Structures are given as C-alpha cells and as structure tokens.
Amino acid sequence: MSDDAPPEFDLNELMDEYGLGTVTNVCKAKGGEVNENWIVRTTIETVVVRGVSRERPRCDIQFEHSFIRALGRDGFPYHLPQPLRTRRGRTVVVKNGMYVWLYNYIEGSNSLPCQEEVIAQIAHAMATAHKAARRISLRQVKKNPIALEDLELMHRLRHWQLTLGDSLDERCRFFRARVQECIGILEQLRCTRYQALPRLPIHGDMCSANVVFSGTRLTGIIDFDHCCSDAAIRDITIALRYECADRRHCFKLDLQAARHFLRVYHKANPLSREEIDLIPAVAMADSAELFWWTIFQIAIRPTETVSMRTIEQPFKALQWYNRHQEEVARALRV
User: Fold this and answer.
1) pLDDT tens per residue across span 208-226
2) 91 within 8 A of 83, measured Cβ to Cβ
C-alpha cells in the first residue's frame, strides 16, 4: 500500500450501497496502469475497491467476473477476487466517471519463497487454472488478438512512426530508428499454426505481482484485468517474461528457469510440442506489443518519467528471441 489518498467519490456512501458498514481506514494500493485500487477497512469487512476507466468496455468487466465466478464454481483451489453485490444485486456501479466494483481483501504475507519455488508454484497454479478453464463455457468471448494472427499492431506501430516523426525526445528517436525492424520481424511471424490452437479463458498477467502468498504457499490469484480468450501458451509466455528473465540481461530468457516452469506446468496440464515450439513466436509478438505500449505511454504522458531502458528492453527482447527461436524452442521441450 502506498498512501491514504481516498478516491474522488464518497466511500461511506459506496459501502452503504454494499451493506458493508462505515469506513474506518483507506489506503490506495500501488501499481495499476489501467485501474485504481483502494484497500478499505470498514466496521464489518476489509475490501478492495477497484476503479476502472469507462474507456474500457463494460463487457470486458463482465467477462472478467464471469471467468472468476466460473473458476470458483469449478472448485479452483486458490482465493479469487470474487465480485461482491450491492443491496440491489449489482456487481458494477458508476462513480465519478469510472466503473467501480468490490471484492473481499485477500490477506497475504510480505515475504516470498525462493525464486525457484515461486516459479514452480505459479506454473502449477496456471496449469490448474487452464485445466479448469477447458471445462468452462462462458456466454461472452473477450478477444485481444496478438500479432501472430492480427495486423492491428503493425498499423499502430506505423501510425506512431509517422506521428513521432519530428520529436526530439531521445526515447522517441530510439523508437523511430527501430520500429521498421520491429515491423519486419512481425511480418515474418504471422502463421496459421497459432490460430489453430485451442482457445480458453486465460488470466493474461499471472506473475508474482498478481498472486498472493501466505508464508511459502501461493494461496490467491488477483488482477484478472487482462483476462481474455486465447491459447494457453500466451499466459505461459507472459509469466516467463516476468519470472524467468535472465538476471544479468533481463531481455533474455533464463532457459534453465523457463524449462523448470514448463516441467512443472506440463505435469499438471501437458502441452503439445506444437504449443511449446510456438512460445518464441508468442514472446516476439508480446515484446513488440510492449514496445508499442511503452512509446504510447511516453507520447500521451510526455512529462512522466519513463527511462530509456524501459523503451529499449522490449525491443532487445524482440531481437533476442528472433535470433534464438530454435534454441529457445529446443530448450523448452519437455
């Protein structure tokens, strides 16, 4: 938690809508690029108040809630941010121009086990979630296609290549000098093999920042904001980026750590060789997306501090995976 700054709406009024008593303490949680979170203690309960920009479609939140509920009904063995209902039965309300929803605070510990154990437990939790997700049928489908099957990212890259053409910002110059190489790599990536993989609801951002440990045991999974319908290896690849990065050069993959992740995952939810061999391609698409997202954040918030390293890392990752596709695929086969 970072500070005591409350949201710009009446929290006591909100707690009354949910029948949760009177507010006794509020702390704004750290992080959150596309949402804001407050941990609120009341005379009855401790909850997380989650504020989401109305630029995000309401149906995305409904998909998120449906997925969380479905995992709970399936007996998923981890605590989840189950959405609470107001006295009138609503899970989402509108306050001060944003969507707001609540869930019971999931208590955790500040310390984590060793990194090898963190990797193993996240891999097992993800495999368990994917096994359950294969049994889940949701009415809605939330698609967020990656560059392996969609041209939208290349259009966005070209747009910002032109838009930032006269910028003197060092970070923008770095982007302009490398964006054509990025587009060239993406043009070679598109393939029908990824499109043929089974689709299921995935978390989309399962890493140590979005799981809860109690002592040395992973007990909860939070922040389903990026959940969507996609292939299991998209979830895996994002986790590898966060949890299995090389310690000296974080744009590279620590192949031994990544293989450990895949071994644990494979025991609980076996992957086909085709899925494993496509992980480097997904990593390149993910790196290109992050390269665009970083320059987008710089362009729309020029006064905020985003280091050169932040814009360099995803591009270096894209290059590294492009040069070592076969090596990575061979190392990950289990």
Assistant:
1) 999 999 999 999 999 999 9
2) yes
Considering only residues 109 and 31, tell me which one the structure prediction assigns the higher pLDDT: 109
Q: Collapse the DSSP code of 51 into the 3-class scheme (helix H, G, I; strand E, B; otherwise coil) and give the result.
A: strand
Write out the residue limits of the CATH 3.90.1200.10 domain(s) in the chain. 115-332
Give the number of C-alpha atoms closer than 13 A to the C-alpha of residue 156, restricted to the C-beta side: 17
CATH class of 115-332: alpha beta
> Quick one: tokens of 301?
């918030």
pTM for the full model?
0.94
Predicted confidence band of residue 110 (pLDDT cuts 50, 70, 90): confident
Backbone angles phi, psi at 146, to 5 degrees: -95, 175
Euclidean distance between CA atoms 318 and 163, whole angstroms: 22
Q: How far apart are CA 205 and CA 234, in angstroms?
A: 10
Residue-by-residue DSSP string for 99-147: EEEEEE-----S----HHHHHHHHHHHHHHHHHHHHT---S-------T
Strand partners, 83: 103
Q: For residues 328 and 259, what is the distance between their CA atoms, to the nearest angstrom?
A: 10
Question: What's the distance, CA 9 to chain centroid?
Answer: 27
CA dihedral 32, 1, 301, 143 (to 10 degrees): 0
Q: Which CATH class is domain 11-104?
A: alpha beta
pLDDT digits (tens, 9 = 90+) for 78-101: 999 999 999 999 999 999 999 999
Contact 123, 243 (CB under 8 A): no
